[in-house]
Specification:
Blueprint (H helix, E strand, L loop, with lengths): L9 E4 L2 E2 L2 E2 L1 H17 L3 E7 L6 H6 L4 E6 L8 H15 L3 E5 L2 H14 L3 E5 L1 E8 L6 E12 L4 E5 L7 E5 L16 E5 L29 E5 L9 H11 L2 E4 L1 H5 L20 E5 L5 H4 L7 E6 L12 E4 L2 H15 L1
Parallel strand pairs: 1-4, 1-6, 4-5, 5-12, 6-11, 7-11, 13-14, 13-15, 15-16, 16-17
Antiparallel strand pairs: 2-3, 8-9, 9-10
Helix pairs in contact: 3-4, 5-8
Length: about 350
């Protein structure tokens, strides 16, 4: 679908599981609202599933004007082909100008299929989205109000801005946690557009027989205080100090990729470009050098304290307070001070 539709809506794929919206959906609704206001169009959400109509008011409260509801028992559980085909047909019917997905396992599965079917461009793992005019450096042609799709590139060493003047809709997947969730506005209402899933049985060749879900060990996004360790912690045993400090402060433990790759802690605790993005009130970085991939996931913390024995570590460039020293000596002193104060 290569035609531009300048009056098309801004869409969010409303990923849900067992009747509960994924957090990234509500984060995207807030940014979609900003983009749509800039373009002077509506925000819509695409909601496939079964018995999910109760989610529509939640979407309205976070900025959505219209919900395209596809209710079918066959869509109760996600499978790639029917979900991708459903979204593809809706895009072809209503011709939005922007479609956003969460960069979740489900979103990363489905978005490329929809992009291929609609012959649209797709930018993966965006960390920011903006609307701006763009001038072609060679032809000097000016494209009005394009979606700037901003993401880390080359291992996070640069930030790339990608535009798609052709092959609309403009589509992107967005990492969870990089956009703040806007407060819900209970006064907002919207419209439900009911669509029928008239897919042939051939699209349902895969049947889910059983699901086994494992809860995450830690909810880093909800933590107001995070004590994070890097490769400089040295061992899984030494991470015990970080758990002790986090316990004294009422916080959670996180980690850099170096610590996870070193086997010091599980992947659920990873913060950064390939982990969770966090914005706590206090972030204590222990033995973390501060590679750009890690900073991308925590640099918007309200207060950052860095502990490192290398005075030239990059983490100090974004820290509000820095302690140059051995974390095995500094952290016990911090724990003692916190407990004495309590």
């Amino acid at each position: 679908m290569s035609e531009q539709n300048r009056n098309g809506e801004v869409w969010v794929f409303a990923e849900q599981d067992n009747g509960k919206l994924h957090d990234v959906v509500l984060e995207l609704c807030g940014r979609a609202r900003e983009l749509a206001d800039r373009l002077g169009v509506n925000v819509a959400a695409v909601l496939p599933g079964h018995k999910t109509e109760h989610l529509a008011p939640v979407l309205y409260q976070h900025g959505v004007d219209r919900v395209y509801l596809v209710d079918d028992p066959r869509l109760e559980l996600f499978t790639s082909l029917p979900y991708a085909e459903t979204v593809t047909r809706l895009i072809q019917k209503y011709r939005p100008q922007i479609v956003l997905y969460g960069a979740t396992p489900l979103g990363r599965d489905m978005a490329p299929r929809v992009a291929s079917a609609t012959r649209s461009g797709l930018t993966a793992d965006c960390t920011d989205l903006q609307i701006s005019d763009v001038t072609d450096g060679k032809t000097k042609e000016v494209w009005k109000d394009l979606l700037l799709q901003i993401r880390p590139a080359f291992g996070g060493n640069i930030i790339a801005t990608i535009v798609n003047p052709y092959g609309w809709p403009q589509m992107a997947t967005v990492r969870e946690g990089v956009m703040p969730m806007k407060p819900a506005d209970s006064s907002r209402t919207g419209e439900i557009v009911r669509e029928v899933c008239d897919l042939a049985d051939s699209f349902f060749g895969v049947k889910v027989l059983e699901r086994k879900l494992e809860e995450k060990k830690v909810n880093l996004k909800a933590a107001r205080i995070i004590v994070a360790g890097g490769g400089g912690v040295g061992s899984r045993e030494n991470f015990g100090l970080l758990f002790d400090l986090a316990g004294a402060l009422g916080g959670a433990v996180g980690a850099s990729r170096a610590a996870v790759d070193g086997g010091f802690i599980d992947h659920d605790y990873q913060i950064g470009q390939t982990g969770t993005t966090v914005r706590p009130a206090l972030y204590i970085a222990c033995g973390i050098s501060g590679a750009i991939q890690h900073r991308a996931g925590m640099q918007e913390s309200a207060k950052i304290i860095a502990i490192n024995n290398d005075p030239d570590a990059p983490i100090f460039s974004i820290a509000h307070y820095g302690i140059v020293g051995d974390l095995n000596q500094v952290i016990p002193m911090m724990i003692k001070a916190v407990k004495e104060r309590n």
